[in-house]
């Protein structure tokens, strides 16, 4: 995706580049709209209808509808903007982050309290090391 292929070689990390920012512009603007209570009400009443008011790609809309934050990030979403979705759902940042890692909320919290993800392990997708 990026013009700097090394940025796409980091396992488990999507670097938010200018290219991704452009790709996700409307997705991120939609997320920011959820800061207004009246927009949250409209979104929760009929998610698809509200999403269809935004010129987002179908993949972006599906990522929102499925609450697939990893897919939304791949489609240009920025986690700080996407936070507006899970906060509108009444979920915490920790709950959303744990869903993105495949860990339970308790496992994710324990990992973070222990210092975060280990630096050991796969460091390059391309080289498999």
Keywords:
mainly alpha, 129 residues, Protocatechuate 4,5-dioxygenase, Chain A, single chain, 9 helices
Structure commentary:
The protein is mainly α. It has a domain at 14-90: Dioxygenase LigAB, LigA subunit (Protocatechuate 4,5-dioxygenase, Chain A), CATH 1.10.700. The protein is 56% helix and 0% strand. It is built from 9 helices and no strands. The chain has helices spanning 18-23, 25-33, 37-45, 47-51, 58-66, 69-74, 79-88, 93-101, 105-113. Helix 2 packs parallel to helix 7 (79-88) and helix 8 crosses helix 9 (105-113). The chain is globular.
Which stretches of 5+ consecutive residues score pLDDT under 50?
Answer: none
**Tally of helical segments:** 9
The run of helices and strands is: HHHHHHHHH
Give the class from helix and strand content and strand pairing.
Answer: mainly alpha
Q: Please identify, by name, the CATH architecture of one domain.
A: Orthogonal Bundle
- Average of pLDDT: 90
Query: Count the strands?
Result: 0
CATH topology of one domain: Protocatechuate 4,5-dioxygenase, Chain A
CATH class identity of one domain: Mainly Alpha
Task: Compute the separation of the termini in Å.
Answer: 21 Å
Portion of residues in beta strands equals: under 5%
Q: How large, in whole angstroms, is the Cα Rg? A: 16 Å
Portion of residues within helices:
55-70%
CATH superfamily of one domain: Dioxygenase LigAB, LigA subunit
The biggest sheet amounts to:
none
User: What spatial form do the alpha-carbon principal axes imply?
Assistant: globular
